[in-house]
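Quick one, C-alpha cells below:
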C-alpha cells in the first residue's frame, strides 16, 4: 500500500463545505481528495513542500543563453 495518511477532524462552515463539494465534483474528486489537492498546490506555490514532479527540461531558448 501507499503512505499512511494522518486522520484528523476538520470543522468547516456548512457553506464552505457545500462549495467544496461542488468544486470537488467538477474535478471528479472526493471532498477530502480535493482539500488535499488544494493544500498541496498552495504549499507547493509557497515553497513549503518538496516538488513532487521532476523539474522541467530546459527549453531550446535556454541553450542559446549558455553558449
Amino acid at each position: 500500500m501507499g503512505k499512511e495518511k494522518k486522520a484528523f477532524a476538520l470543522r468547516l462552515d456548512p457553506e464552505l463545505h457545500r462549495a467544496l463539494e461542488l468544486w470537488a465534483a467538477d474535478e471528479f474528486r472526493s471532498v477530502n481528495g480535493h482539500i488535499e489537492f488544494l493544500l498541496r498546490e498552495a504549499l507547493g506555490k509557497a515553497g513549503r513542500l518538496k516538488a513532487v514532479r521532476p523539474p522541467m527540461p530546459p527549453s531550446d531558448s535556454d541553450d542559446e543563453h549558455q553558449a
